Structure formats: C-alpha cells, structure tokens
C-alpha cells in the first residue's frame, strides 16, 4: 500500500516539473562549446600551477638535503670525530691508520706566527730549504773555595795556612748555525762557535796575611768545537698526538784542549795562587749525542720536552796534566744525560713567552797515564747542571725572527746566568 502511494506521488511531481523545465530556455551549441573551452583553459592553468609548485618543492628538498644533516648522520659524525663511530651494515669500522690519514684533511685554524716561531725553535725548520741562525750568548760563572793547609790541635784548633780562592769567569760565544732541509721531514745542520773567555783568579791570605789579596786575569779566544747533526721528524703533530723528532749530533775537537795546560805561580801570593797559562775553548775529544723531542700545540700554548744522551770518546794525549814534563796518557770525559721540559704562550700573533727547565747529569772524568797504566778518576769532575730559562720570541717578518733568552743556574755546577740572542732567517 505504501509502495502504491509513493509511486503516485512521484508521478504527480514529475507532471508538475515537466512544464517548468520546458519553460526554461535551452543553451545553444556555441554556448556549450564556449563553456567547454573555458573549463579546459582553467584546467590547463591549474595544471601549470601545480607543476610549478612541484618543481619548487623539489628544489627546496634538494637544498635542504645538502645543507642539513639528518639527526642520525649528525650523531654518527660526532662519533667519528671522536673515533667511536660504529660500522654501518655491510661496512667495516674505520681503522686507526685510516683515521690518522684522514686527520690532516680536517680544517683547523692556522697557527699564529708566534706559535710557528716557538715550534721552529724547538723542532727546527722543517719544510724550509735553507736557513741561517746567528747567535750571541754571554755566561758568567762565580766559584769561591776555602783552602785549608795544616792540622787540627785538640780536635778544635786549626794550625796551618788558610786561603780563600775565588774565580770569576765570563764567556762570550758567537756562533752561526746553518740548516738545510733535504725533505719536509729530514734536516741537516752545522754549528760553528767562536769563544772569548776571561777568567779572574783571586786569592786571600797571601803571604800569611788574611787581609792581603792577590789576583790575576787570564784571557783566551778562539774557535770552539764544531758540531754537525741531523734530525728526522718521526711523527707529525695531529689533533691527538704530539710532534716527535729524533736527532743525532757529532762534535769535532776543533777547540783548544783543556789537557796539558801549564800553571804559573803568582808572585807575592805565598804559593797560594797558581793560574793556568791559557784557557780552553773545547773539550779536546770527539763527542756524539742522540735524543728525542716532543712538541704539542694547544693554541695559544705550546708544550715541549726532550731527552738527550751525550757520549764522549776517549783520546790519547801527549800531555795530560800541568806538570813540567810531559805525561802522555789517555783521557775519557764522562758521559752525560740531559732532560728538559717547557711551555710557551703566544701573547699575540707576533710575540710569545716561554719558560723551560733543563738538567744535565755528567759523570766524572778519568785519566790513565802510560807509565802507570792505572785509571785515575779526577775528583770533582762530575757535575749536576740545572738551568731555569725564560725566553721571548718575536716574529719580525715572515722569514725573520728574534729569540731572546735569560737563564739562571739553580745548581752549584751551572753558570750563574746566561743571556742569549738568536736571529734565525729562513730563505
């Protein structure tokens, strides 16, 4: 029943709507074609705009991929910088050798001129073909000694002669060092020194008079011991390891020997003062040295250290002592071990300050005369030399630098003070 009623209502509505539709004007074919063309033009414009938007989106994505790193890649990059990156699937973890080879490619700030001056002064001029380094140094020594010649009475009263001996020595050394770099790791050098020595010997208690003083000055000048050596840069400095340099030197006995020098007794000294006829400018024997030095730059700091062993070779002399007659024999100077450490600080791009400490332990000298054939140790020939140094470096130009140094001896065997000036020039 409901279905029949619904069909009847639908038929009635259709009959009522047909006259209204028939009454509306129908569009012509031309109008319909115009509408179709308008819709096609709108569609083409929308398609073009869509393509332009897609192209712009692709360009933005490409730029973002080049300038930004995904979160995972950033984390892995940080780990690689610390040598902790894990291997990707299908890849092997980077080895230490591969990381060390890749380290020089990392971009780091260029060292300042002041840092380079300190580095070259400690580990030589690697990478420079030829350089000359003139130097001038002044050292002062003072040694006082109380001499007793007699005996004790009742274990408290001294009977005999008392004299006070004092020696003031000044040494002026002018030297020239020439360096030649065969490669960027291997370098050869030669050092030629010229010495002027002046020593004043003073004694109190002359002529059994405690208030009477007598002195004599001895001067000597001449060529010192010429030395030549080679150094090899075993490892270059990286972000994690220091610069390591191996060195070897040889020293020729070109200076005046200290053996066989006669003594003169000074008149009116009562036999208290005898002085050498001349002073030595060399050791008189061949020598060699081998060492290793390390340097690490922590801009603006430069930390350095070294360890060196000195070897003196025995030699036969026609005269060993100051006696009038010749006493032929053989002499062996003691070997030595030296270590040193220091730090330098760059004040600005052109200047720096440095502080260092070195200590050398020297074994005693021994001699053997031909007539006795027995080795005899020279009393007091062993030494402990400790020196504290304060220096400054100035980069005058790209090739010329100025190095100044002030050293103070902190042990009895060390010079009281030393002032040095060096002017290295790289060609």
Beta percentage is over 45%
Oligomeric state of the chains in view: single chain
Helix content: 10-25%
Low-confidence stretches: 1-10, 15-23, 67-110
CATH topology: Porin
Average pLDDT number:
77
CATH architectural group:
Beta Barrel
| Shape type | rod-shaped
Rg for CA atoms: 45 Å
Strand order of the largest sheet: 1-2-3-5-6-9-10-13-14-17-18-19
SSE string, helices as H and strands as E: HHHHHEEEEEEEEEEEEEEEEEEEE
Number of domains: 1
What's the total number of strands? 20
CATH superfamily: monomeric porin ompg
Short synopsis of the structure:
This protein has about 425 residues and is an alpha+beta fold. It is built from 5 helices and 20 strands.
Structural description of this entry:
The protein is of the alpha+beta class and 427 residues long. It has a single domain, classed as Beta Barrel (Porin). 21% of the residues lie in helices and 45% in strands. It contains five helices and 20 strands. The chain has a twelve-stranded antiparallel barrel with strand order 1-2-3-5-6-9-10-13-14-17-18-19. Strands 11-12-15-16 form a four-stranded antiparallel sheet, with no helix packed on it. Strands 7-8 form a two-stranded antiparallel sheet. A hairpin with a 4-residue loop joins β13 and β14. The relative contact order is 0.11. The N terminus is likely disordered.
Which terms summarize this structure?
Porin, disordered N terminus, four-stranded antiparallel β-sheet, 427 residues, 45% strand
Mind sketching the topology for me?
Layout: H1 2-23, H2 29-67, H3 71-81, H4 96-102, H5 113-123, E1 130-153, E2 157-181, E3 186-204, E4 213-223, E5 227-235, E6 243-251, E7 263-265, E8 274-276, E9 287-298, E10 301-312, E11 315-317, E12 329-332, E13 336-346, E14 351-362, E15 366-369, E16 375-377, E17 383-395, E18 401-409, E19 417-422, E20 425-426
Antiparallel strand pairs: 1-2, 1-19, 1-20, 2-3, 3-4, 3-5, 5-6, 6-9, 7-8, 9-10, 10-13, 11-12, 12-15, 13-14, 14-17, 15-16, 17-18, 18-19
